[in-house]
Amino acid sequence: MRLTFREVALGVRRSPLLSSLSVVTIAFSLFAFGLFGLLVLNVDRALRGVEEHVEIVAFLADGTLPEAVSAAMGDISNFPEVANVQEVSPEQALARARAELPEFQDVFDASFLPPSIEVRLKEGHRDPKTVKEVTQRIQTYPFVDDVRYGEDWVKKLYDIRNIAGAAGIALGLLFAAVAVIIIGTTIRMTVLARAREISIMRLVGATDGFVRRPFLLDGFLKGIVGGLLALLLTWGANAVISHNLIQTTFFDPAIATIGVLGGGIIGLLGSALSVGRHLRRV
Amino acid sequence: MIRFSHVVKEYPRTGLALQDVTFRVNKGEFAFLTGPSGAGKSTILRLVIVEETPTAGEVRVSGSLTSGLPRGEIPRLRRKMGVVFQDFRLLEDRTAEENVAFALEVTGAPRDTISARVSRLLTQVGLASKGTSYPKELSGGEQQRVAIARALVNDPVLLVADEPTGNLDDRATRGVFQLLRDINAAGTAVLMATHNLELVKRSDYRVIEVNRGQLVFDSADGNGAGTAATSTPV
Fold first, then answer.
1. What is the pLDDT of residues B187-215, one digit of tens each?
2. Separation CA B114–CA B112 (nearest Å)
3. From the CA of B89, how many Å to the nearest CA of chain A?
4. N or C terminus of chain B with fewer C-beta within 10 Å?
């Protein structure tokens, strides 16, 4: 291991420009990937925020007994998909309407508004199919006049989430593939720059493993340093956007650590592929 | 030590490089490999150091059949031989000592024995005082001596030299050749490819001559080429 570290240090000392170029290339490839990740994270968070507003409103018939409403609310809150249930009296409904709509400012009689039950669903149960199923179950209560949940709106929101998710995965894979190719090519330059040394190593009886080890460590370390630089750049970009444009969320420490380690692994894989290909040829 | 049996080497682009080459170099023997440029000398050496395998026929080095030798076994076979080239092939950013030590390090030799062995070898090749010099600070002859020290550091049973004096002046050539003779006298077999006919004439070592990919003369066989392979090993 001591020898492996020494060979890595020698490689960096011998060609500092190429080593720096490798780290910067890795950093910018991962930076592009990081920015994309940040975009996906924030779009997802925004969509989740909108999704939280998915609710089912059951309008109750006039004269429904409070005991019946309480029993139904107890039932509904026990549905596995349901997060919470809230009763809205005509007075509360009018107060809300007056707060939100100017044309209700002069209305003081709430008797024309029906009482209702508002049902919010748990995360993961807000897709159109589940919302419709819960709605149908609520409709079976005899004192429920009408149930609304904004069918079109829920469907559109769900479609947007699906499209954003699929696009995120496809573009993410594309970005990752481009990063691996760029990083692999950069490391290949390092391998070619040391082709003579590799041939001498093999001549004096070095095993493939011995030749490969310094390159793997070199690729991993460059990947880690590049990953840290990319994290710093992404953090800076996020700070600028958050300060000047819109409030954004940054990666949590676990994701950031995975990102940096991912850089190391891409560096390691790039090295393994480049050295492996070179060794097969010589 | 080295045994070629009806060896054919053909390259897809350049065609036949060797045709039906048969010879044998025995333990402790010194043999020159001569012939004009493109005759097949380097191909023979590449087959010996297992950089190539024959298209047909058999090459055996130190008892191992090189065709089909598992990739992991090749380095172990190479450690039994030392290789010296015309262009020295030293690592420019390492001192003479480090270049020699490198050949030991790759074999996993114990760290505490490396320094003593490197010193002994550099003394043997007459470079005891140049251990900390970098290749560019050494003359051609000195660089070749470092390369020879590196080739010998693992105590090989065979030294393969490809035009080791090709880049040297007369004085350095004599010095390097004398060194190779001493190495051979100590029991290491030497196969040396050379263009230098003066060197060949001045010594009474065996001469194997190739031309156009064929073995055309072998001084170990008074009757001509090919039969040297049947000579009795020493």
1. 999 999 998 888 898 888 999 999 999 99
2. 6
3. 7
4. C
CB contact under 8 A, B83 and A203: yes
Q: Which of residues 98-157 of B touch A (CB under 8 A)?
A: 102-103, 105-107, 150, 154
- Residue B51 inside a domain? The answer is no
Enumerate domains of chain A plus CATH numbers. 2-49+158-281 (no CATH), 55-148 (3.30.70.3040)
- Indicate the number of domains in chain B: 1
Contact indicator for B84, B162 with CB cutoff of 8 Å:
yes
In a domain, B227, yes or no: no
**For residue B232, what pLDDT is reported?**
33
Where in the sequence is the domain holding B99, given as residue range(s)? 90-155
Contacts of B75 in chain A (CB under 8 A): 202, 205-208, 210
CB atoms B93 and A210 under 8 Å: no
Phi and psi, residue B47, nearest 5°: -70, -35
Residue B55 lies in a domain: no
Chain A residues with at least one Cβ partner in B under 8 Å: 3, 10, 13-14, 196-197, 199-208, 210
- B106 and A206 in contact by Cβ < 8 A? yes
Cβ pairs A/B, distance under 8 A: 45
ipTM value for the complex: 0.80
The verdict on residue B198 lying in a domain is no
- In angstroms, what CA-CA distances link B140 with A101, B125, B164, B168? 95, 14, 10, 6
Query: Residue A14 has what DSSP assignment?
Result: H
Chain A residues whose beta carbon lies within 8 Å of the beta carbon of residue B93: 10, 13-14
Report the C-alpha gap between A212 and B75 in whole angstroms: 14
- Inter-chain contact A208–B93, Cβ cutoff 8 Å? no
Q: Which of B75, B79, B91 sits opposite A197 (nearest CB)?
A: B91
Indicate the pairing of strand A55-60 with strand A116-121: antiparallel
